[in-house]
Amino acid sequence: METLPLSSCGLLCFKMKCHKIIFRFYLIGTIFFLSACKSVAVLPSKTPVKKVDVSALAYKIKATYPKINKLRSRIRAIYDDGKREQQVIIQLRLETQQKIWMSASMVIPVAKLLITKEGVSFYEKFQKNFFKGDFQLINEPFNTSFSFNDIENLLLGKPFLDPTVGRWKQISNPQYYILIPQGSKSNFQPTLFFDPTSFLLKEQRFLIPGSLQTLIISYKNHQRIQDRQIPQEIEIVIFDGQQTKKVTLDFTRTDLPNKLYFPFEIPEGYNQISF
Q: Burial letters for 154-164: b for 16+ Cβ neighbours within 10 Å, e otherwise?
């Protein structure tokens, strides 16, 4: 059997090692290239990027959602229908995916509201009425179909529909990223507006099914609390083609406590109302 000289063996081994190193660099480079092709980073900018990667944008938006367990706030609520304006102070307590509790006062306490996934409970002290049932109490006046999640999302500055789920289309706009769903079967067909610098939700608009009503929810300002971006001023507008009704929610004192209590008991002698 013929043997190669020592120098030839060393040269052959050296060539084999070089080929292995080149192959490894090629493999790593290919992986990084394919990864970059699959996910295009969406960076903050003063103006929206035209033809942005909608999927990457959606995940950037979702990263801004406030991750909280409990929230407490004092809200100055103003109702305006063009004919009269009324102000109410609301104490809000919220435990995500569990309860939303509100106590309203006009100098003195006048009403309490408790919302859970199962339904709505409410009582008011002027006429001593109470309601206990489904979400009709909230939906009947506005011809809407809100669920617990919708109301929670509204208060936390999150869109009713998750832009990371399903197909979405970008609408060109010089000021905002605007997204609309494609082929959604939801009761709401939203148009979502997002800030290109912070990726926070600035507005969501809906055409209410079966009516001429338009619902617009605008987030005028946000506040940073414990590194979470939480709405500071929300404006809710309903237009039926003739009249505009507006509710402004001004969150004046907000914190994220570790413990919260939700005291709610319908007083004896109150009259039950239904829809």
A: bbbbbbbbebe
> What mean pLDDT value characterizes the chain?
85
Domain boundaries, the chain: 61-259
Angstrom distances, CA of residue 147 to CA of 93, 206, 211: 18, 15, 19
Per the listing, tokens 């001429």 go with: 212
CA distances for 22 relative to 16, 17, 29, 36, angstroms? 10, 9, 11, 21
Tokens 């995916």, located at residue: 97
Q: What's residue 258's pLDDT?
A: 95
Kindly state the tokens that stand for 144.
Answer: 């809407």
Could you please state the CATH topology (level 3) that the domain comprising 61-259 is classified under.
Answer: outer membrane lipoprotein receptor (LolB), chain A (2.50.20)
What's the DSSP call for residue 172? P
Digit-coded pLDDT (tens) for 233-258:
999 999 988 889 999 999 999 999 99
Interatomic CA distance for residues 236 and 266, integer angstroms: 29
Backbone angles phi, psi at 101, to 5 degrees: -120, 135
Task: Tell me whether residue 72 is exposed, middle or buried, using C-beta atoms within 10 angstroms of its C-beta: 0 to 12, 13 to 18, 19 or more.
Answer: middle
Question: In angstroms, rounded to a whole number, what is the distance separating the alpha carbons of residues 13 and 207?
Answer: 72
The lowest-confidence range among 118-127, 203-212, 225-234, 256-265 is: 203-212
Query: How far is residue 112's CA from residue 164's CA, in Å, rounded to a whole number?
Result: 35
Q: Alpha-carbon distance 249 to 227, whole Å?
A: 22
